[in-house]
Amino acid sequence: MVREADLGEKLRGLTSGAAVALRLDPQNYADNYLLALTAAIRDVGADPNTHTIFVSVTNPASLVWTIAQALDIAPERISFVDAISHIMMEFRNPLPNATYLESPRMLENMMLRVEYLLRKHDKQRNLVIVDSVNSLAIHNPAPLLSEFFHIFINNLKARHVLAILLASADETTNTVDQILSLVVDETIDVRVEGDEL
Amino acid sequence: MGGPVAAGSLSDAPARERCRTGIEGLDNILEGGIPKGNTVLVAGSVGTGKTTLTLEFLIRGAEVGERSLFLSVTEATEKLMENMRSFEFFSPALIASGQLTLIDVPVLYAKLGLTQEELGIDEIDALLQTIERLLEETHAQRVVIDSITSLGYRMRREERIRDFMLRLSQMLAHHGCTTLLVSEIGPLPGRYSLHGVEEVVVDGVVLLGNARRQGDILRVLQVIKMRGTSHSRAQYVVEMTPIGLLLAPHLKGDRVEEG
After folding, report:
1. Which burial class, exposed, middle or buried, applies to A187 when counting CB atoms under 10 A from its CB (0-12, 13-18, 19+)?
2. CA of A57, closest CA in chain B: separation in Å?
3. How many domains, in total, are found in chain B?
C-alpha cells in the first residue's frame, strides 16, 4: 500500500504544525512499524534543522533508540519521553537522551516533558512522534485521552511542530478513530507491500 | 472605558503593576504576575514544590535586577544552594553580587538571643525589627519566608501569630516588597495554614498539592485568592524541570469531584 520512499517523501512534504496519523496494518506489524519509524525518524528527522521528540508508550525508549541508531541517527538529534519503562520494570539503564515518566496515565506531565524538550532544542522545525494512540488508550479513559490530544496537538500546532501519531489499524476502536479524526489533518494507512523492506 | 484593563478581565479598574514571577504558567494565570506589593501565602503539604516555586520566584527576580531576599527557617542555606543549582538559569554570581540574599533564621534567633521555646511580645518585636533591618539593608523587592508556619510555632498563641502576621504584612507592604510566605499544611483540604490566621491577613493564596489518578500522583497548583487581579481558579499540573516550573491544565476527562 505504501512504499518506504513514498511515505518518507509524503511526511517530508508536510508543513510545520501539521498533525498526521500513521495507521499501521496489523499484518506484518513489525515491518509496518519499522517502515513508519524509518520514514518518521530518518526521513523527516534527517533535516539538520529538526529535532525529534519520541514519546514512547508502546516500546521502551531503549528499543526505539536501538532502531534509531541502526538508522544512523545521532543522539543529539532525538530525545525520548518514555512513559512505559517504569511500569514494565525495564529501568536499569536509562538513556542520557531520555526522560522517564512513572506512568502513561500522567498525561499532563507527558505534555510538559515534551514542552521542556521543545524549549531545550529550539529548532526551526521540530517533530513529535507519539507511539502510540492505542497504547495510551489502554491506560486512559476515552474522555481524558480526547481532552489530552485536543490540548496537546493544538499546542504543537501553535508552536509549528509537526506531530506524527502512530496507531494500529486492527486495534483501532471507535474511540481511537474518533480521537484521531478530531486532532489530525490526515490519516495515512501504512502497509508494506510484498517484500519491500 | 477607563484606564488599562488587565487582559481577560471584565473589570474596567486600572490594572495594577505586576511583579512577574518568571514562572510563565503562573504569570499567565495571574494575568501577568503578582500585583506588586502583595503578600501571598504559598500553601501546601510536604513535597508539593513550595520551596522550589519560591526559589524560582527569587532567582527570576534577581536575574532582572530586583533585589531578592530568602529567609529560611526550616532549611540550611547550603541545602537551598544545592536546590538552586538544579536550575539551569541560576548563577552563583547573583548571590556574590548581593542581588540574591539567603538568611538562616535560626542564626538570627541565636544572634538575638531568642533561645526560649516560646516567643513573647518583646521577642516578636525584636524579630520584626531584625526583619525590617534586613529589608532596609538588602533593599529587597522580592521576599520569601520559608516557612511562616515554623515562625508561628514559637509564638504559640493565635492572637500573637495574628498580630505578628498583620505587622509583618504591613511592614513588607510599606517597603514595597512582593512577598511569598510558605505555609506548611497537612494533606487534608479546606485550610491554607496550620494556625488558621495567615490566609486571612495575606493578599493571595497559592495552593500546591497532590492529585491522584488511578494511583499516580500529580503535583497540582491552584490560585485560590489574589487581590488586584481576576485570576484563573482552575487547577494546573506542575512539572519541575531544569528550566523552571512548567504548568499544564489539569485534565478532567470524566472525573467527578466531590465538594
Report:
1. middle
2. 16
3. 1
